Amino acid sequence: MTRPVKIAPSLLAADFARLGEEVAAIDAAGADWLHLDIMDGHFVPNISYGPAVVKALRGRTRMPFDVHLMISPVDAFLPAFAEAGADRISLHAEAGPHLHRSLQSIRALGKSPGVVLNPATPAAVVAPVLDMVELILVMTVNPGFGGQSFLHSQLPKIAELRRMIEASGRDIALEVDGGVTAATAPLCIGAGADVLVAGTAVFGTPDYAAAIAGLRGGAG
Length: 220
Ligand code: DX5
Ligand code: ZN
Prior knowledge:
Elements: E1 6-9, H1 19-28, E2 34-39, H2 51-58, E3 65-70, H3 78-84, E4 88-92, H4 99-108, E5 112-117, E6 135-139, H5 155-168, E7 173-177, H6 185-191, E8 195-198, H7 200-203, H8 208-216
Helix pairs in contact: 2-3, 5-6
The chain binds D-xylitol-5-phosphate and zinc ion (ZN).
The site of zinc ion has 6 residues, from β2.
């Protein structure tokens, strides 16, 4: 069985002094989605960039914008990211007490809702909201920084979520984020992932097209 695999380079590892050019380059290199990591220095121990940067980049590409919110509280910021040009907005199950309400808000804004699970969060957390999401993102590092090592302990969770998605009969993307390389990508794909986020493994290399092709390679 081969499921088409999408590659979503994470802008976090790009050259921040040349963001527009980096986005154009990654588009030309064959990326499917652009992954945008939003960090608040509170939910995660790092600060990245906000909706103004997302908006500034929107005109540079037609790739879907896959916005990964690592902020808490999150609800008040959803309209700003929707207006900035996000296509998909994903938030952490751990970010607040009202995951269901936040997902409803994303839907009401006309965007595609996703839920993210930290390494210590079980797959079962998404079961009550499976009917509301179009994407489930499994963190294979603790969020906050690029360049960390892939947590192999998350592979059974990816497989469990793939089974849950198949059982639901719904069209839900299963994305993996953190430490994805040409070596770990086949493990993710083998466990059932169909979208791979990669920062360092793409932007940290001289040939973006080769890096993206290498990540996709595991799909056969
Ligand atoms: C981590 C971010 C990731 C990060 C991945 O909190 O969510 O998207 O940029 O970076 P790499 O691919 O270098 O692990
Ligand atoms: Zn991310």
